[in-house]
Structure formats: structure tokens, C-alpha cells
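Here comes my example:
=====
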Amino acid sequence: MARNFPSWIDAYVKYAGVTEAPRRMAFWAGVSAVAGALRRHVWIDMKRFQWTPNFYIIFVAPPGIVAKSTSADIAMDLLKQVPGIKFGPDTVTWPALVTAFANAQESFMMDETWYPMSPLTLVSSEMGSLINPMDRQMVDLYITLWDGRKGYEKVTKMSGNDTISAPWINMLACTTPQWLADNMPAATIGGGFTSRCIFLYSDSKERYIPFVDEMVDDNDEDTRDKLIQDLEHISVNLVGPYNITKEARDWYRPVYEEFWKNAHLRMDDSMMEGYAARKQTHLFKTALILSAAQRDEKVITLDDLQLASLMLDDVESTMGKVFSRIGKSDDSLAAEKFIQHVKKNGELSYEQAYRMVHAYFPDFRNFEGMVSGAVKSGYLILIQKSTGLFLRAKEETSSQPPAPISREEAYQNELLERQMAGR
């Protein structure tokens, strides 16, 4: 059976990109769908360990802004139509998870040998339904499953009666910054579980579309059917290890070396250091998905690796906002909100500013202390006018002229624009 689309991811981004959600969410929802179709059929063999194409992708956004749940549902609706794909429980508990693994047991053949596996895709509009960050045993299991270790072969209930061979989990979930602040202890950020997640943050609509049905073309049902057919093709025909081309390896060697030579510039942030240590794994998992979305040949090319790198760089650009509330006092969060309010308005009189934050700082002296801190830290500046005192956001400027863009950077920009536009 031939494929309908040269790239499943490209076709999916175009299909799903009719909503107000950022197209980058469509991209990563598509990645999760392809991963769910591949299951544990494929891997990258590093001889001492394997990378399997499972992801923990978490959409993070304030409630009701970017339709994060809809973005996840569109992709998972397609995956659910593929025969043989097993989904885990909507609310994860130990008994429910083990039962789901037991029901998901299957085998696949490669080189006349049968290999057992128990693959599950978990999806939820509420991350808290899938994981309790305070449950150390559950968190440790998710860590082990993401790593895809050869030696980890079973999950057991408290009773020890159920044994599951080769469990594998792929997760797509949604949450809010507030939930993370309320449920993720500061000590867990950057650690085992969160460093294995792709946190995709957004706090604004990419476009304004009051009537989505007006954006859907007449071929929508046909496109949906073809996307499902190609997912089924991927799930059936791709089995075995992926190879990395020499060109891709040669490009990545200096990138990897440069990344770690400058590691000290990132490692001072505990929220990013764990992720940075696993970026290589995220990169090659993503590159495998991009390859599988385009061809049956089990090879990762330079284009696959470069586009995967671009999309991860895009994710990292907003990752700091995901955990911005964690470990901060209410006063600190209020101060950040106040600074953002001034930036949004451009300029506020002292009286307008106080009225805005009166609920947080009813004592005027505390308000003055917050303003003083924002000014001293360089976020705001005070302007004296004939009509009174005003606050203005300090403009962020750079003393360095922009560097000329290289041919490789131009090519990467073209790849990114092509991907984000859904071709």
C-alpha cells in the first residue's frame, strides 16, 4: 500500500491548522500520533542502550486561550481509528494501568523472531489525571518507561500477580501553569520526569477564527481518511532499527561538542539542566518520527535531524514560562503580573498602576516597595511628567549588531517556515 502524503506531519499540520491554536501544537500532536502508531516496533540502537519513539508531550497554556485540548483531540481521534492501537485509562491508577498493560500485550515479528510488547498511548485534557507528581513510585515508573531500557520487562500490582512484558508508554496531555505551580514541587523541576517531557507553552491565539467550519475545505473528510490510512501504513510496515546517515552524524558531532562546551551557560538554571542533559535523546526520537512520517526506509537523514533540532529550539524558547510560577510567593507572582501589565499598556500613571494591583498590595508602602524593586532590577523606569509620575516598561535593546545569516541558517529558517505553515 502506497502512502497518500509525502510527509504525514506536513499533511497533518495543514489538516489541523484550521483552529486558533498555534501550529507548533499541531506539529507536536502529530509527532505524538506517529509515535503512537509506531509503538515499540522501531528503535535506534546505540549498542549500550536503545532510543524508542515514545514521547511525553505536555501542552501548557492558561485556560480557554489556545484550545490545547482540541489540538490533542484532533490527532488522537485519527490514531484511535488505526487497528491495533491501544489507549490507556483516562485516569491512571496502579490497578487501572496494570490492567491496561495486560490488555495491550501483543507481539511483532522481525527476522523470523517474535518480540513481545505492551504499548499504550495515554491522552488526557488534564495532566493530573495521568500522573500524581507526589507519587514517587508512579513517577519512577514513567521515568523507566520513557528510557525504554532493555532490562525493564515487567510491571506488577501490589499483589504481584500480574506480569507485563516490555511495557511502553506514549503520552499527550494538557495542563495549565497554575496546575504545575500547585502540584509540582520546586525540587522536582529539572529532575527525572520533567526532563523527559516536551513542554509546549503558549498564552495567545495564533489567529482569530470565530467560525472554524469556514476554514475547512471540501476535501476535509477525504483528507482525514487518507491521514488514517497513512498512520495505519506506518503502524504495519515499519519494524526494526533505524540507522543514522553519515551526513547526519558528521553534522551532529560539532553541534554536540559545542552544546556541551557551553553547558555551563545553561546549567545554572535547575529548571533546564535536566532537560539539557536529555536533549540528544529528544532530538533523535523526534528525528526518527520525522523520518517515519515521510518514508518506509528506516534511516535518519540530515534534513530529519536539522528539522528536529529547529522544532526543539522553538520549544525551548518558551520553556521557562512553563515553570515560571513554581516556588514563587504570591507577592512575587503579583509583581510579575504587574510588570507584564505595564509592558502591555506601554505606560501607566502611578495612580493607575496602584489601582491595578490594589487587590494584591492594599498597603501603599508595599506597592512602593514592589515598584522600587522593578525599577532597580531594570524592568521598569519612572518618568516625571507635568501631569505626574508615570511608569514605563524598559525597552530591551542589544548593543551588538545582528550577525549575518549563514547559508545553513537560511536553509533552517526555510525548513521551519515550511513546517509551521503546514506546506
The chain is about 45% helix and 15% strand. The chain has two domains: 8-325, 328-423. The longest helix spans residues 220-237.
